[in-house]
Amino acid sequence: MDTGARTELGTFLRRRRNEVERSDYDLPPVGRGRTTGLRREEIAFLSGVSVTWYTWLEQGRDINPSRQVIDAVAVNLRLTEAEHDYVLGLAGFTPPPRPDLAEPAPVPSHVQHLLDALDPAPSFALTTHWDVAAWNRAYEGLFPAVRDADPAQRNLLQFIFTDDWVRSMLPDWDRTSRQFLAEYRAEASGRSSGPQHVRLVSHLRAVSPEFSGAWDAHEVERFSSRRRVFEHPRVGRLVFEQVNIVPQDAPDLHVVSYLPLDEDGTPAAAAALLEADPEAGPDAGD
Fold it and tell me: Which of 30, 139, 141, 227 has the fewest CB atoms lying closer than 10 Å?
């Protein structure tokens, strides 16, 4: 990276850092009530680098930032795709093709057979990027919109943070949404600079302020089986135990199953999910 590129990169990052709204990061005003701009230590913390190193980056010092660090700074400054590509180019990296959010590949037939065998326990298969790649009838009864969703938008985090039907069913939405995101973050650590991950996080930042706030909290949590409660508008209260299964011959998929617990008539209510009109949308019966 030559001197001119280093200077331009530092100037650009400093300008963008000073322009962001602190409230977008759930941060209070600073100084005399200033509501715009992050401190260097704040963006350094969010991006996982030292304050000294980030200061040198803005000062145009002769350092060699990795692509992963440039991606992290770009994501945490919430740069647009064009701005993200621009800073990558200044740092000497070829901007990657920006793939659209893509439809996941079909799951192996034996995974679909497993999902079908788990009825009436609502169950679905997740890819490494948490795209919902397949599901059974009970899951479609629990969440009818999964059938009609754009395959490229059929992502569990997208549903949790942007779908009103999902939010209305979860009496503990705030805790559950953050827990799912913490689990995703734990799984995504090895691909945090990959284009699909960066694209997903950037997309959800753009459409959900609540996602942005939860993502910036940097919570990380390993999955553990747990009790899940849904308030379904058609069949009523449902109480499940959520479990994850990783097929040995399809290790890139996670099968998530909600096993009915013997509470509040859940076994009968879960069976009723199979009887829902397959052509009825989420608003049917309102």
Answer: 227
